[in-house]
């Protein structure tokens, strides 16, 4: 994990914590499909920590995060509480800001 920048590591660890709590809530609601969506969102984040690269961060932000939000939007549920990702927004913003700052550094 030494190659993973602190800003990224902190945000990813908080995403993992938040996602695990969301899995627990989905399990308590007996919603295995939602458990799968949540776990699918998280399963590659440890690789980002272990083998950090700007390409992996970009892939998470551009592909995996968007797929997660899309899957949540398609998931049928009695209420829409599962679509509330506000607690993840500041973490995603921190990752996005880091990626943009370092993409700009690389372009110089």
Task: State the gist of this model.
The protein has helices at residues 6-28, 32-42, 45-50, 54-74, 89-107. It has 108 residues and is an all-alpha fold.
How many extended strands? 0
Oligomer: single chain
What is the terminal separation in angstroms?
Answer: 27 Å
Globular, elongated, flat, extended or rod-shaped: what is the shape? elongated
Strand proportion: under 5%
Low-confidence stretches: none
The averaged pLDDT comes out at: 91
The portion of residues assigned to helices is over 70%
Largest sheet at a glance?
none
Count the helices. How many? 5
Q: Strand-and-helix sequence, N→C?
A: HHHHH
What's the Cα radius of gyration? 15 Å
Structural class: mainly alpha
- What is the count of structural domains? 1
Can you give a write-up of this model?
This protein has 108 residues and is an all-alpha fold. The chain has one domain. It is built from five helices and no strands. It has helices spanning 6-28, 32-42, 45-50, 54-74, 89-107. The longest helix is centred in the N-terminal third of the chain and has 23 residues, at 6-28. The radius of gyration is 15 Å and the shape is elongated. It starts with 5 loop residues before the first helix and ends with a helix. The model has no long low-confidence stretch (mean pLDDT 91).
Descriptive tags:
elongated, 108 residues, mainly alpha
Write the layout of secondary structure elements.
Blueprint lengths: L5 H23 L3 H11 L2 H6 L3 H21 L14 H19 L1
């Amino acid at each position: 994990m030494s190659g993973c920048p602190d800003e990224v590591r902190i945000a990813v660890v908080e995403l993992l914590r938040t996602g695990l709590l969301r899995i627990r809530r989905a399990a308590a609601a007996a919603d295995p499909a939602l458990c799968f969506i949540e776990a699918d969102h998280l399963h590659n984040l440890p690789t980002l920590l272990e083998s950090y690269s700007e390409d992996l961060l970009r892939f998470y932000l551009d592909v995996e995060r968007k797929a997660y939000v899309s899957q949540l939007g398609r998931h049928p549920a009695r209420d829409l509480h599962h679509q509330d990702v506000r607690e993840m927004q500041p973490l995603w913003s921190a990752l996005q800001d880091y990626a943009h700052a370092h993409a700009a550094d690389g372009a110089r």
